[in-house]
Design a protein that fits this description.
alpha+beta; four-stranded mixed sheet; 3 helices
Length: 107
Amino acid sequence: EGYDVVLLTNFLHHFDAAANEAILQKVHAALKPGGRAVALEFVPDDSRVAPADSAAFALIMLATTPAGDAYTFREYDAMFQSAGFERSECFALEPTMQHVVIGHRSA
């Protein structure tokens, strides 16, 4: 039993990395083998200053949440791996500012 896909839309940026790892561990446990967690997020590049909209969003999260942030894909990948996911990938959703980060549970 379990889910094929769990959607996390505009959610993870509200929390710090440790809280996200705890959430992702629960999502991982709820997935069927081979399932996927799909997160819709603002994802700056590794410089954290581009693209400008994602960098600005990071400032908004830092100013308006107790511990939120706009995380880089490298940071999301580490969170997904710590939660037990086999691998993750990131895709830009042009022309929007957002990306989809997909965590894959092993089959």
